Predict the structure.
Amino acid sequence: MNDPVTPIAPIAPSNAAADHAKARFIRRMFDTIAPDYDRLNTWVSFGMDRLWRRRAAGAMPLEGWIADWCAGTGALARVYLRRRGSRGRVVLCDFSSEMERLSDGMFTPAERSRVCYVCCDVTRPPFRDQVFAGQMMGFSLRNLISRPQFFQEAHRCAAPNGQGALLDLSSPGFGPWRWLCRLHFGIIAPLIVRLVARRGEFAYRYLSESIFRHASPREIVSEIKTAGFADARHDSLAGGIGVIFRWGPK
Ligand SMILES: C[S@@+](CC[C@H](N)C(=O)[O-])C[C@H]1O[C@@H](n2cnc3c(N)ncnc32)[C@H](O)[C@@H]1O
């Protein structure tokens, strides 16, 4: 496979994104919780994150270049690479150098030959136009400083007929369920973090609160359409606590 993902600009070192205060805050927060992040995610979501990742990775084409935006340690990429029949190569993009460092030991040698890690801000990705057959993201839309800018870049980088699957948490519309989720993310999840990791409680409080401050799935679909993906749509997961935004052939 030729390498169409040659950066068009020098790859930004991870601190190049630090010119924006929120980006710096987010990046530092993820650097801090990186060693425990994957484990805590599974504990806090009672394993649902794994099922949902399979849904998102399952929506990717079996071949071509796949972007894993805000990849963290590459949990979503690993699900894609281990999917039966997948032959694609994954470009992991994240601005947390700690996540990148930890990801290194998490891929088998065979998997490592199919991935590369690019340390960058996903709202300014250094890639050519129309390179990605698939684009996926796990639990990160809430952290972006400018979602519209990210969607514009995703559209620029999308190959014709490319597919997208962006997974995130959301606030359920049904009152009692929303109340239970608030209880879980406001009290139970930080407690689990305190017991299991003994650090990062603040980060998980921030991340929990961000779920309930986040734009609604309809607003996000409209932003994705505005960026140029006319067929953008969303699927609710577990009564609306999870959501996958999709574009491309069904
Ligand atoms: C909640 S974690 C998700 C990690 C992974 N996608 C997963 O499924 O577990 C969010 C990740 O997004 C990264 N991130 C947030 N904003 C970013 C940005 N503007 N550019 C690059 N990475 C970003 C953080 O460094 C962090 O690793």
Notes: The chain has a mean pLDDT of 89. The radius of gyration is 17 Å. The pocket of S-adenosylmethionine is lined by residues 23, 26-27, 30, 41, 70-72, 75-76, 94-96, 99, 121-123, 138-140, 143-144 (CB under 6 Å).
